[in-house]
UniProtKB/TrEMBL annotation:
Nucleotidase that shows phosphatase activity on nucleoside 5'-monophosphates. This is 5'-nucleotidase SurE. GO terms for cellular component: cytoplasm. Its EC number is 3.1.3.5. It catalyses: a ribonucleoside 5'-phosphate + H2O = a ribonucleoside + phosphate. One of its GO terms (molecular function) is metal ion binding. The keyword Cytoplasm applies. Residues 3-195 form the Survival protein SurE-like phosphatase/nucleotidase domain. Binds 1 divalent metal cation per subunit. NCBIfam families: PRK00346.1-4, PRK13931.1, surE. A divalent metal cation binds at D8, D9, S43, N96. The lineage of its organism: Bacteria, Pseudomonadati, Pseudomonadota, Alphaproteobacteria, Rhodobacterales. SUPFAM superfamilies: SurE-like (SSF64167).
Length: 261
């Protein structure tokens, strides 16, 4: 198996090393793992692409490249430049430092890379490690992902339908904020919504007196619907959420059709 990996935390991020080990396990001794990751951190860029300026790319080692762009840029570079003559069988994005459950999925560059791969017709999985009081300061905050990552991907690949009509499916995997031994199991879960919490901005001043704004995330343990991804992660479960790039609210279509008829 030939696997392309990327992330949004950057080419030197510890989570990318974890993902590389997961990919090597999946690829096996006869397989190949190729890395095309952002040269610098790209957290929060979602599915952004560098449409109005070029992306510099540099080879750092065997099958390892850094691109000055977003995760989606890196997937495009991997598919249409680095591996243009030998496309990958699978694209993995992550392992993100922090969860991409609930509304975080909409901002995630990790998900953006997987989404671009799906739009290009490939099987794609995003992997993220939830951080919390039990693992954030541990010697290995990524332990749950490192121990359970390869088997979780294998479980997904066993049931993935491959090419389907319309937008291709991709997967959002979140590992809970606990040690590997305390993981309860793996569950399919819908995307949740943390209630009464939002991204905000905080004002600060530089030493020169200029005013800047920092984006601040909301409470990552805020209440979500029972059984949703964030809820199950907090309870110690690995969650797998199937997604598609179709943003249509299909349930509302008939009402709108009636309104405009």
């Amino acid at each position: 198996m030939r696997i392309l990996i990327t992330n949004d935390d950057g080419i030197n991020a510890p989570g990318l090393k974890v993902l590389s080990a997961i990919a090597e396990d999946l690829a096996g001794p006869e397989g190949e793992v190729w890395t095309v990751a952002p040269a610098f951190e790209q957290s929060g860029v979602a599915h952004c692409i560098s449409y109005t300026h070029p992306t510099m790319i540099a080879q750092l080692g065997p099958r390892k490249y850094a691109a000055e762009g977003s995760p989606a840029d890196c997937v495009l570079a991997g598919l249409h430049d680095v591996l243009k003559d030998s496309p990958p069988d699978l694209v993995l994005s992550g392992v993100n430092r922090g969860n991409n459950s609930a509304e975080n999925a909409l901002y995630s560059g990790t998900l953006g890379g997987a989404m671009e791969a799906a739009l290009q017709g490939l099987t794609a999985i995003a992997l993220s490690q939830y951080l919390g009081p039990d693992n954030a300061l541990a010697d290995d905050p990524f332990e749950a992902a490192a121990v359970h990552g390869a088997e979780t991907v294998r479980q997904i690949l066993r049931v993935d339908p491959g090419r389907i009509e319309g937008y291709r499916r991709f997967y959002n995997v979140n590992f809970p904020p606990v040690s590997a031994a305390r993981v309860e199991g793996t569950v399919a879960a819908p995307q949740g919504l943390r209630r009464n919490t939002r991204f905000t901005v905080e004002s600060t001043h530089s030493p020169s007196g200029r005013r800047f704004l920092w984006v601040r995330g909301g409470d990552q343990r805020a209440e979500t619907d029972t059984g949703s991804d964030a809820d199950m992660n907090i309870k110690g479960w690995i969650t797998v959420t199937p997604m598609r790039a179709d943003l249509t609210d299909h349930a509302a279509l008939n009402d709108l059709k009636d309104a405009f008829s």
